[in-house]
């Protein structure tokens, strides 16, 4: 039995006053229909019309009008730095890896093949533990809110 039901998501910056929160990894934020646990240990059924990537600070809108804040969980990632990141970003994108692209670094999920490629090309690769908010891409993964995925992530 579920305690709460959400059938829609409110984008970051368009709401305030959350009743509770769900702390979710990147993979857990790719969803359509899934039962989640809130920080107060309530069972939340998320039942959306289509699969989306829910972002940090979005909110699940409950059927009773209350809101549940989405918090990006800390997770194991690889941090890639180099004097010239642009060619490295191209290689990561060419392999369709979700990537959080920043001015001085790129974050990806752990992948030994990509790690070895980056190191061979002169990058410094270190393990970090922090939230992962990758860029949206052709299939709507990452920061692009509300787009359909090119393949199913229903759980």
- Order of adjacent strands in the largest pleated sheet: 2-6-5-1-4-3
Helix content: 10-25%
CATH superfamily of the largest domain: Urease metallochaperone UreE, N-terminal domain
Q: Could you name the ranges where pLDDT drops below 50 across 5 or more consecutive residues?
A: 138-155
Blueprint of the fold:
Layout: E1 4-10, E2 20-24, E3 30-37, E4 43-53, E5 59-62, E6 67-72, E7 74-81, H1 86-94, E8 99-101, E9 106-108, H2 112-120, E10 124-131
Parallel strand pairs: 1-4, 2-6
Antiparallel strand pairs: 1-5, 3-4, 5-6, 7-9, 7-10, 8-9
What labels would you give this structure?
single chain; disordered C terminus; mainly beta; four-stranded antiparallel sheet; 155 residues; HSP40/DNAj peptide-binding domain; 10 strands; Alpha-Beta Plaits; 2 domains; 2 helices; six-stranded mixed sheet; elongated
Descriptive notes:
With 155 residues, the protein is mostly beta strands. It has 2 domains: 4-72, Urease metallochaperone UreE, N-terminal domain (HSP40/DNAj peptide-binding domain, Sandwich); 75-131, Alpha-Beta Plaits, CATH 3.30.70. The protein is built from 2 helices and 10 strands. The protein has helices spanning 86-94, 112-120; strands at residues 4-10, 20-24, 30-37, 43-53, 59-62, 67-72, 74-81, 99-101, 106-108, 124-131. The chain has a 6-stranded mixed beta sheet with strand order 2-6-5-1-4-3, with no helix packed on it. A 4-stranded antiparallel beta sheet has the order 8-9-7-10. The model is unreliable at 138-155 (pLDDT under 50).
